[in-house]
Amino acid sequence: MSIPPLPPITTPSPSPYTTITTFLSTHSPQILSLEILPSSHPSILTDGLSLGIPRPALRSAYLTARTIFLSRTSLSASTTSTTNQPSPHALDFATQLLLLHSPEHLSAANHRKAALSHSSPNRPACHAELALLTTLLTSPLPSHAKSPTLWHHRFWLVTHHQPCLLSGPQPPATSTSPPHPGSSAAFLLAELATVLQAAVRHPANYHAFQYARRVLGAWGGAVSGAEVVRRVGGWCLAHPGDVSGWAFLGWVLRAEGVGWEEGERERVRAEVVRRTRGFVEDVGWRGESVEGFLRGVEGEGG
User: Fold this and answer.
1) Is 36 helix (H, G, I), strand (E, B) or coil?
2) pTM, rounded to two decimals
3) Can you say how many angstroms the Cα of residue 127 is from the centroid of all Cα atoms in its chain?
């Protein structure tokens, strides 16, 4: 009598929450590209530093993260009981998932602030937090690039932990955003690059440019005003219909806190007007964004 073959042993597939958090953990603190896929996609897709998550999988991961997050106790609570409480590591990944699903999840953002504030300054933790925010703000996600909660959280991070971010080993470079070199000028230019990339993701991104105003207003004296204008001016000419970019460029040309040498502001302003006028004539561009910028800058220049 022949013995029938045993059925194959199947290994259960990991849950969406496990798959996503494993990917984030494996590649931290690198800057990633996250994308939400239509429900028709059968599974989570990975390709290098890119992760595609079908909507049903993201909803499932969100519910798991929410359950973990709601089971926590306050970091400031005076209690010695840790029974059934999630670990700080588990809460770290749970709040990442919450912000990936809902960028305005204020409780998750505040928990991450508290976790950083209650620990001693930690260079890897600060760099990982900055990389996470860059990932969320520059990935092709529906509304993260314009999230006031994420931009406020980033400003809190660079305000309270800038010395930590400027020292020690830097996160690995990626094709989309370089690491922050250990100088204030390079740090500010890297932040500007993140803002401009987020502004590409979501046109008229006033929240991103307002963040840039706040950062340059606080530390702009450490960076060359001419270099900021060169980068922002090039971005504006590549996106001439984006009024938020032109408004920010006009602000930079007026800002007193940005680093300008004597007489440099007037020379740069004249060059910007010349280039912009040349662009308008060469391509026949008609639009209030550019015309309004030129009226304002030429009026200020006398």
Assistant:
1) strand
2) 0.87
3) 12
